[in-house]
Amino acid sequence: MRTAIRNARLVDGLGEHGKGDLYLKDGRIEGVDLGGEVDEEYDVAGHLVTPAFIDLHAHLREPGQEVKEDLESGLGAAVAGGFGTVVSMANTSPVIDEPGLVSQLVEKAQGLGLARLRPAAALSHGLAGQRLTDFAALRQAGAVMITDDGIPVNDGHLMRRACEYAAELGLVIQTHSEEPSLRGDGVMNEGPVSQRLGLPGNPVAAEAVMVYRDCELALLTGCRVHIAHVSSRRALQVIESFKAAGAPVTAEVTPHHLTLTDDCLTSFDPVYKVAPPLRTGDDVAALREGLAGGLVDTVGTDHAPHTRAEKERDMLEAPFGIANLEVAFPLLYTRLVGEGVLSLPTLLERLQGGPARVMGWEPPTLEPGKPADLTVIDLRSELPVEPGTFRTKAKFTPWDGQLLTGWPVHTFIGGRKVFER
Amino acid sequence: MIPGSTAVAIPQREPVSKGPRKNLLDFADWSSEEVIRLFETADVMAQVLTRTIKKVPALQGFSVGLLFFENSTRTRLSFERAARAQSADVMNFASGGSSMSKGESLKDTLRTLDAMQADLYVVRHHASGVPHQLSRWTDAVVVNAGDGRRAHPTQALLDAYTFRNSFPGFDGFAGKKLTIVGDIAHSRVARSNAELWTMLGGEVVLCGPATLLPPELAELPGVKLNARLDEAIEGAHAIMALRLQLERMRPGLLPSAAEYAARYQITERIVAGAHPDAVVMHPGPMNRDLEIEGRLADSPRALVEKQVANGVPVRMAVLYSLLVGKR
Ligand SMILES: [Zn+2]
After folding, report:
1. Rounded Cα–Cα distance for residues A83 and A374 (Å)
2. Does B249 touch chain A (CB under 8 A)?
3. How far apart are the C-alpha atoms of B74 and B78, rounded to whole Å?
4. How many other CB atoms sit within 10 Å of the CB of residue A146?
């Protein structure tokens, strides 16, 4: 099987490679402007062609919460958002804490032929924070990351032992760093807005304290610790100091923490209820600087679908989370690249090479021989966000109706087209 | 029509249906002029309530839905009486949480209730923001009867109204200082009173132990914080003690009730440092000899009973002002 993608603007995390025809052969990139016979060809007329993105943080809800999302809708949303590889979180029902559950997920996802699924497995049985799961067996079954994401690991001793064990196996530990007793019953950032709105606050201190502990354990154990969804300037400052000290820590930010502030909660719309919470404009500025300068390694979507009924509850009862896979790139391109915060190659690097380096994988590029996992993006036409057209089952978003540019129009996985807008 | 009812002059106003629907969620979209007019309407309503037949037909044909997701017999009865005194139909959805199943969304619950087509909903809920959410999902007027820690605007209105009426020849709120003492952090009464009083031109000082006095509230315009009771109360024209809701507090907020009473109880001795004519208010129900000295609560300075009594005419004025002309 040989495919040509003609008249493409070729860009990857290494830079711009001009315009040309990109040839794919047997699931891999063959080269540019080679000519010769092809089985299939696409004229993408000036659209961007770039390696498909990697998301290290998505909640796909299968098994057990298929009413919110399942592998098909979640991985479908991934390819619609230009993502070719997704690390799924383990807080499903049952929790992914047994090797059999990991291998079932991997097999089922392979059958779907959408984005590549690389499951994370739970750090503790049932996310209960009591007993470590069998990391080696989970890795054997296909788990690439260990995390109790959704629930902070409260017990410092357990976290330390998890890091020691994971370090020996070369597994990445991802953290949900919020100190539970400081976080309390907070549903939004603690500050002037939460006081005005009379909603229970979750202070930055809850995040900073736990990030400190998790970085300290990375330093102590040598384990690669990936701090998920960093939301505040203080937490970033902690990470910066530990990176400077040589701790093997990496950091992730989400699309919503890069573009929204706690002022959004003034509408009392639970669509803005996320954990950790949306912070202040100063925190957003710090996260943007961190992403531009490389202190932040990657953008993770923290795609967290829920049913509409759940999000139409009151601010105390509604669940945390936004479904982000489909809007992540257009949002970040429109806002961050559009506002001059990042260059396009830097944004691509944080969605391609960045997450690959966090995981110790080979960075995806357009070089010959690399897997033909590609996304084709229209950087010119401006389209509104229409939740009704989402592939995810969560048909609501904070950006409903907003005009964004940079929508993926085709996605290829292993040289095979799996999405077309 | 009820005999004799026309003898009371109900102020006639322009229909409100021309502009966008007006709610009472908090005071963010209210002006001081509107509040002053509301007080004048409440004066007329108070006269209605002194008549033998305490009823006027002003809201005949309107229906008022009382959605009390959080129990509060006092506030509910006050609104119910305010509606019935103006001949409105009243539909009660008082629920102890039973009518709303756990899985159902708030929006679906309201849609079900909205099928009964009330013109105005009075909403109380333990979560901040629910009246705001409901106002997006219905065409009816929404009145907030208390939401979480956020707002209790009719309580603030009746508090300010009671203060206004306690001084013969009252010349406005400018230069008048209100000191609110107690669990500011968890109090919707404190937030609404601070919002209203400063909008009317007065000064507000919030006072309480540091654990219950969030420093960020100092960012509200016209509001000062002071954790020292004697300083906070200096020259105050009104002192409001809040009910300590010990049952709701997370451990660590207060060492003990006795420690609180020793440092923050409003007593006759403390009030001596306030303005000579200072009045004492309490949104009730009181913990006597905890947040307020029992003797002081029974003294002529204390307006507690007047606050309760004024609840009805003030709420009558609210319903009247938001509904009349809507048809
Ligand atoms: Zn998380």
Report:
1. 9
2. no
3. 6
4. 27
- What are the pLDDT digits (tens) for A238-257? 999 999 999 999 999 999 99
Q: Are A262 and A280 in contact (CB under 8 A)?
A: yes
Neighboring chain B residues of A184 at a CB cutoff of 8 Å: 250
* Cα(A415)–Cα(A407) distance, integer angstroms: 20
User: How many Å is the Cα radius of gyration of chain B?
Assistant: 20
Q: Is position A302 annotated as part of the catalytic site?
A: yes
Contacts of B20 (CB under 8 A, 6+ apart): none
Q: pTM for the full model?
A: 0.93
* Contact by Cβ (8 Å): A245, A212: no
Closest residue in A to B215 (Cα) is A192
Q: What is the ipTM of this complex?
A: 0.89
Q: Does the CA dihedral A114-A124-A251-A328 come out positive or negative? A: positive
Rounded-to-integer distance, Cα A253 and Cα A57, Å: 10
B189-244 residue pLDDT tens: 999 999 999 999 999 999 999 999 999 999 999 999 999 999 999 999 999 999 98
Percent of chain B as helix, strand, coil, to the nearest 5: 40, 15, 45
Do A82 and A375 form a contact (C-beta atoms < 8 A)? yes
- R_g over Cα of chain A: 20
Whole-number Å distance between alpha carbons of A325 and A254: 11
> What is B258-314 written as a DSSP string?
HHHHHHH-B-HHHHTTS-TT-EEE--S---BTTTB-HHHHTSTTB-HHHHHHHHHHH
Selected catalytic residue, list A97, A302, A373, A378: A302
In this prediction, residue B116 carries a pLDDT of: 80
Q: Please indicate if any CB of chain A lies within 8 Å of the CB of B217.
A: yes
- CB of B188 less than 8 A from some CB of A: yes
Q: Is residue B154 scored above 50 in pLDDT? A: yes
Q: What Cα–Cα distance (Å) separates residue A316 from each residue in A195, A312, B149?
A: 15, 11, 12
Residue B62 banded pLDDT, cuts 50, 70, 90: very high
Inform me whether the pLDDT recorded for B32 exceeds 60.
yes
Residue type, B173: F
Q: Rounded to an integer, what distance in angstroms lies between the CA atom of residue A99 and that of residue A20?
A: 45
CA separation (Å) from B70 to A14, B224, B312? 59, 31, 20
What tokens does A154 get? Answer: 């409260």
In angstroms, what is the span from residue A176 Cα to ligand 1's centroid? 5
Q: Residue B9: which pLDDT band, with cuts at 50, 70 and 90? A: low
| Contact across the interface for B133 and A309, Cβ inside 8 Å | no
Least confident span in A250-259, B19-28, B242-251: B242-251
Q: Are strands A374-384 and A403-413 parallel, antiparallel or unpaired?
A: antiparallel
Which residue ranges in chain A fall short of pLDDT 50?
none
Asked, as a colleague might, if the bond just before A203 is cis with ω within 30 of 0, I would say no
Of A184, A267, A309, the CB nearest to B108: A309
E strand or H helix at B192, and its extent? helix B188-199
Q: How far apart are CA B201 and CA B263, in angstroms?
A: 30
pLDDT band at residue B102, thresholds of 50, 70 and 90? Answer: low
